[in-house]
Amino acid sequence: MKEYPTVPSVEAAPDGLVDVGHLWLLEKIDGVHLRFQLQQSGLIRFGDRNGVYDDADDVPDSAQHAVRYVRDHLDREALRNAVDDVEDVVFFGEATSYQTVAYDWDRIPSFLGFDVWSADTETFRPPDAVHAIFDGIGLESVTVFERERRARDFDPESYTIPQSAWYDGPAEGVVIRDKQGRRAKLLHPDAGDADAPTPVDVTAEKLAAQYATRDRLERLATQLEDDGRAVTFETHYERVLEDILREAHGRLSHGEHTLEMSEFRAEVGALTRAFLDERTDGT
Fold this sequence. Notes:
Blueprint: E1 22-28, E2 32-38, E3 44-47, E4 52-53, H1 64-73, H2 76-82, E5 89-95, E6 111-118, E7 123-124, H3 127-136, E8 144-150, E9 173-177, E10 183-187, H4 204-211, H5 214-226, H6 233-252, H7 261-281
Antiparallel strand pairs: 1-8, 1-9, 2-3, 2-5, 3-4, 5-6, 6-7, 9-10
Helix pairs in contact: 4-7, 6-7
């Protein structure tokens, strides 16, 4: 599966990017890199920056919510109708898991696309086509701050990075693109000033109670119902665990604690079951 090239800082931008032509300025999302490719079988193959996973269950926990999101939302039929061979196309985006920017997790999709590779032409699609491609297959793409800005009118030193579309604060930065496939990034100096995750110093039971709150359990159950899906224990528990890991994976994977994840998962499962039992009794 095609790997995504490293995006340099604007100070090391490819020759000509900020000198000639027109630029697209895209919101840089602070998340986990995720790529995918639809197979002829109908299964979706996923990868991150470190490798490709033949079994999607092997994708790191911090991106599992995005794996499910892509599986649920990808319009496979639309993609098959749009290309001769679905395996010629690789999609790139961000799994919106907590890193340093606390997005509004109830609003931001689990996956936001930012680029598309076409093997038959051996090129990345131009930025003006990327949004339409993702929209056409049922997924959202990153926010476009500006389209077709003349490069000679863009001064990285004086440019003010806009507010993020996904929380009350500045975007982590902008990705600068042109139609020739050149790209660079300009980061906001203050975005993502979150404290580093602290190691877990409580029992699995207390930690589960901290994260598997009634508000979270109710919100996710309601989402399932709104999607027309039955709120079974297995389905609800999977959503709850994915939601927690999306926001807390940095702390839960911290190397300085002795938390057994199996114990934590079991405690989350117990709280989920108790919630569903109470919810059933009350209806």
